[in-house]
Amino acid sequence: MTRRREAKVVSLAEIKQRKMIAQYIAFYGTTYENTRKATK
User: Read out DSSP for 1-40?
Assistant: First the structure.
């Protein structure tokens, strides 16, 4: 039971981290596009 619970917590943390990374990439990507447009 405890092992299963721990695995669940780890997976939740991984999902949260992936979401944060995806958001960061999206934000960075949009800012990069905006700066490129601004320089043009």
Answer: -HHHHHHHHHHHHHHHHHHHHHHHHHHHHHHHHHHHHHH-
